[in-house]
Every structure is written in structure tokens, then in C-alpha cells.
Amino acid sequence: MTLSYSELLELLASMNRIAPESEGAFKARLRHFQRLGFPKGSNTGKGRRAEYDLDMVLQLALAIQFMQAGVTPQHTVSLITKNWSETRTYFLFAAAPGPLKAENGAVLSNELALCVSPEALRELTTDGESEVDHFEAFNFIEVDKLPEFLKDNPEQPVLGDFYRWIVILLRPLVAVLMLSIEDLFKIDAASSFVELQRIVRKHHEDLEALSKEIEAVVIEMQEARERGDGNP
């Protein structure tokens, strides 16, 4: 599945109930993300048409939710980009038809919430800003465990404060996205999610295989040094 920029704009406007007379202002706000090169591959330059696959659409659908909560485009891009691999996995999990089972037989709920503590004044704090601020800033919590998480979690989060949270329900967001795609463009959104799941799984398998190859090379080098027939 790929969407043109005009189709993407139509989709996001529909999901967020943007009035027709306000589409110009909404488009201008979306350009903030494009100027920041977000999502990757969207800033194609003049004369080249950008196409948005499901992975990019998911990133922007989430980015709009942060925009709705008042998070700046710069912080939004940093948060999503630095946590996208894990976030995409949870999005795909949330898109499953129902609860899944773990290898040990435990039932896993895919009614999930993304929780993040925003900190717009980070640059003014004693900690200041750093390149690593937004890594691991997302918390993914089962919806029925949200009260426990919000009430009994006095630990300071990676970003922000334990008493201030943005909570985004992933499964309803995915459902609205899928229904909007199917209604507007007559595209089988479920099949697109399955294809993205396949791509992500293959990527993870390739990374695992590469990791094993690197580990084998390291072990071989260590053994060679121990035998005295390798370079120190």
C-alpha cells in the first residue's frame, strides 16, 4: 500500500475531523514534519513525488496525535524516530484481530496504551537537553493496567515527570486508521498490515542472523588469540 501526498492529507484530515475550509492550515502544519525530513523518505525535493507506505503513514498518524496534545514538531519527530522500531511492533500487535498467545501459553492483550511524559521545558532544566533524551521514552501498557501504572508508579520516567502523561490508545487509533483507509481508498488495510508484519519479521530475522555471524567471528578471534595464532 502506498499513498500520494494528497491521499495522505485526505486520510489524516479525515481521521482528525479537519473542516474543509481548514485543510490549508492543516497542510501547512504537516509541512513542518516534511521540512524535518520526517518520516524518512518524505522530503524528496522539488519535482519528485513522494509516496507514503504504511510504515510512514503510521508514523504520521502518531505524530498528529502528539500535535493534538501540543507537542512541538521537533520533539515529536525526535520521540517517534528514536523509538520507532519498538513502537511499530506494538502498532502491529495492536492491529491483530484479538488477544495473542505467548510461547508459554499466556494470553497477551493487544489493548495497549502508549504513555509518554512530555517535557517541553527540557532545555531550561538543570539536566538540559541531550541527544539521548528521547530514547526509551515510550511506555507500552496494557489498557486494563493503566490505573495501576498511573497510580502506583512513583519512579521518575526517562523523560518528564511521573505525574504528567500523554496517553494514546493504540488499538482504537489503528482501527480508525484502517477503517479510514478502506473507506476513502477502497484498499484492504488488513492485508497491508500483514505485509508490513512480514517485512518487519524478515528484518528482525536478518538482524538476528547478522548478530550470530558477528558473535561467531568474535569467538573465533578470541580462540585464535588464546592459541597464539592470531593478531593481538
Q: Look at the helices and sheets and give the structural class.
A: mainly alpha
The value of Rg in angstroms is: 21 Å
Given as residue ranges, the uncertain stretches (5+ residues, pLDDT < 50) are: none
What is the strand tally? Answer: 7
Range of helix content: 40-55%
Ends distance: 51 Å
Overall shape: globular
Describe this structure in words.
By secondary structure, the chain is mainly α. 52% of the residues lie in helices and 10% in strands. It has a three-stranded antiparallel sheet with strand order 6-5-7. Helix 1 packs across helix 7 and helix 3 crosses helix 4.
What are the main properties of this structure?
single chain, 232 residues, mainly alpha, three-stranded antiparallel β-sheet
Brief characterization of the structure:
The chain is mainly α and 232 residues long. The chain has eight helices and seven strands.
SSE map:
Layout: E1 2-4, H1 5-15, H2 23-35, E2 51-53, H3 54-68, H4 73-82, H5 84-94, E3 100-101, E4 107-108, E5 112-116, E6 139-142, H6 146-151, E7 166-169, H7 170-185, H8 189-227
Antiparallel strand pairs: 1-2, 3-4, 5-6, 5-7
Helix pairs in contact: 1-7, 3-4
